[in-house]
Amino acid sequence: MRNLDVLLPSRDRQRQLSYFMELSLVGMLFIGLDRGNGGIVVNTAVALAVTQLPPVLERDYGIPMDPRLTLWITTAVFLHAFGTVGIPGTATNLYGELWWWDHVTHALSASLVAAAGYATVRALDEHVEGVVLPQRFVAVFILLFVLAFGVLWEVLEFAIALAADALGTDAVLTQYGLADTMLDLVFDLIGGLVVALWGGAYLTDVSGAIRERFESRAN
């Protein structure tokens, strides 16, 4: 699957794209402040915080975060935040205007959750003697892990919607009904399946760094 790298821009271009999206998130944050829209402010602020995770993980924990992983993370949170900002000249946003936007962002976000689970499980598999986790077991675990996280997220969205309704404020996260929730979970599984099948091609260095941290703490 490393042949997929030929379809990606150069590493310098990947860094530039990540920086561009980070700067765009700052602009979207100010748009939210200017509009007095709490949903935009919260979602863009959280997205900006997530974009700072790769340098923190690399600097403070020694976990290698090459430009591909950084671009992956940044793209996922950028698309989510961008979807909340809205279409200029309209009263709606991309989540309400484009039926597929929510599914794309769910699949991307789920792939990040799956990547974190995959790297950690592989690190434990390599670190703990006497524990052997077959590839099929890891794949099933990743799918269940993503599905559990997806259910938790949907419950959180529902709770936020209820709280916002009770307080008479706009919800930071929005649910669009039972059918939409079920589709969200389906696309969560798709994102998890992609990582379960091909995560080893891109997450080996990350899981190796996590394993080394386990070993350093054990000594």
List the defining traits of the structure above.
about 220 residues, mainly alpha, about 80% helix, about 0% strand, globular
3D architecture notes:
The protein is mainly α. It is 79% helix and 0% strand. The chain has eight helices and no strands. Helix 4 (67-85) runs antiparallel to helix 6 (101-127) and helix 6 crosses helix 7.
| Quaternary class | single chain
Principal-axis shape: globular
- Binned, the helix content reads over 70%
Structural class of the helix and strand makeup?
mainly alpha
Write the layout of secondary structure elements.
Blueprint: H1 11-35, H2 38-51, H3 53-61, H4 67-85, H5 94-97, H6 101-127, H7 135-167, H8 178-218
Helix pairs in contact: 1-2, 1-4, 2-4, 4-6, 6-7, 6-8, 7-8
Quick recap of the structure?
With about 220 residues, the chain is mostly helical.
